[in-house]
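Everyone, study these two lines:
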Amino acid sequence: MKRKIEKLGHSQEFTPLLSYTPLSGGKRLRPYLIYLFSEPLGVSKEIYLELGTAVELFHSGSLVQDDLPSLDNDDYRRGKPALHKLYGEGRALLAADYLMLYSGKIISSISLPAKLIVELMELWNETALEVIEGEFLDISISKGRPEEVEKIHRLKTASLFGFCFSSPYVCAGEVRKAISMKSAGIDFGRAFQIFDDIKDKVGSIATLGKTPGKDESQGRPSALRYMEIEEAKEYARKLYTEAIKKIEFIEARKALLEILSMIEKY
């Protein structure tokens, strides 16, 4: 993954911008989830590394967008200056576009039968469009009613997790099973976002790697607009449990239970 990222772009001027956010740290949770389901399904390492790279690049591009002054206006990401603070807003925006578009190029080039590539690309295109729509709603809706907040969470955050859960099944030729696994990934992603809302309220820049309290100060939709912290935790754990119930692999279930303790920390 690192070698592929370091070679992004076609010019010495652009490459540092493209690699900055993907190589700046982070948990790499999304590629790990793809690996977690690919291994027991017999999906080759070559395929799941390509899938994981594509998802991580897209996610990085979305973070660059998220930090822009016209969106969340954050100066830090993963404990480092946000990309636009180093290179300017225009260059950062173009880098984000490139990262998010290049992900589709990677996925379309994966070595799979044509029928499965079509299925995989349909799943990916739907996911990518949902993430962008979720971001739009996030900056367009002030505070938001519970159903609006849940819709934003589902699109902006949970959709990409749905892809991580389901894409290995598509690659393994189990397209019907991929549908239920996308649902599991959506539950996982919604839980993840609720925990993130909690961290935004009570976390610190040292633990978050970004400015805390941004959602509340900007009036952004958050689960904590209509739930107390303990209630939100309980609901997130319920969603997480529902996701795990849908997973057929024992080792994957165990790994996700371990991940829960990491996600809950703030």
In short: The chain has a mean pLDDT of 91.
